[in-house]
């Protein structure tokens, strides 16, 4: 890899789960519909779109050591994003976002479990400092912790 020919994206990667009801919802009951699982997360989505544009995109994120984490990294890698430097945290759940939509497509409620994003810490980023500083462009998901954002700002070098 030539110096400065890659983009580093630091941010979340999660599984988006959306439930779509076929009919008006019956509360406190099971409702027929469709459930979709798709890769998501601000950082992952940015990296994915940069890869679609033909850019050399590297994602620095954290996923759980579960099926969803494995699947998310595989799908993201298949889309052309390098995921080799992502942190896999055994025993933790991969970040997820669950939404419930009614039959008109209106979101009624959502729940997120994105606590693993706290693993994208200054300590984790420091392990990749040379790589991050060598990037042509650094993109930081502003949903990162304050500690991680401060680290990026203080350690990004001339990029």
UniProtKB/TrEMBL annotation:
Keywords attached to this entry: Kinase, Metal-binding, Transferase
Q: Which residues form the Carbohydrate kinase PfkB domain?
A: 5-140
Highest taxon, organism lineage: Bacteria
Q: Which Gene3D superfamilies match?
A: 3.40.1190.20
Q: Name one GO molecular function term.
A: hydrolase activity, acting on glycosyl bonds
Q: Name one GO cellular component term.
A: cytoplasm
Q: Which SUPFAM superfamilies match?
A: Ribokinase-like
**Taxonomic path:** Bacteria, Pseudomonadati, Pseudomonadota, Gammaproteobacteria, Enterobacterales
Pfam families the record matches: PfkB (PF00294)
Q: Which organism is it from?
A: Shigella boydii
Q: What is this protein called?
A: Pseudouridine kinase
């Amino acid at each position: 890899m030539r110096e400065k020919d890659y983009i580093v994206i630091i941010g979340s990667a999660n599984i988006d789960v959306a439930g779509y009801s076929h009919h008006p919802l019956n509360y406190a009951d099971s409702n027929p519909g469709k459930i979709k699982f798709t890769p998501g997360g601000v950082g992952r989505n940015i990296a994915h779109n940069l890869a679609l544009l033909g850019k050399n995109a590297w994602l620095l994120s954290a996923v759980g050591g579960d099926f969803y984490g494995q699947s998310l990294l595989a799908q993201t890698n298949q889309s052309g994003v390098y995921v080799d430097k992502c942190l896999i945290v055994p025993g933790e759940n991969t970040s997820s976002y669950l939404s419930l939509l009614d039959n008109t497509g209106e979101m009624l409620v959502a729940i997120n479990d994105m606590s693993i994003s706290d693993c994208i810490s200054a300590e984790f980023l420091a392990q990749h400092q040379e790589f991050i500083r060598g990037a042509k462009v650094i993109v930081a998901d502003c949903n990162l912790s304050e500690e991680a954002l401060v680290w990026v700002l203080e350690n990004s070098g001339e990029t």
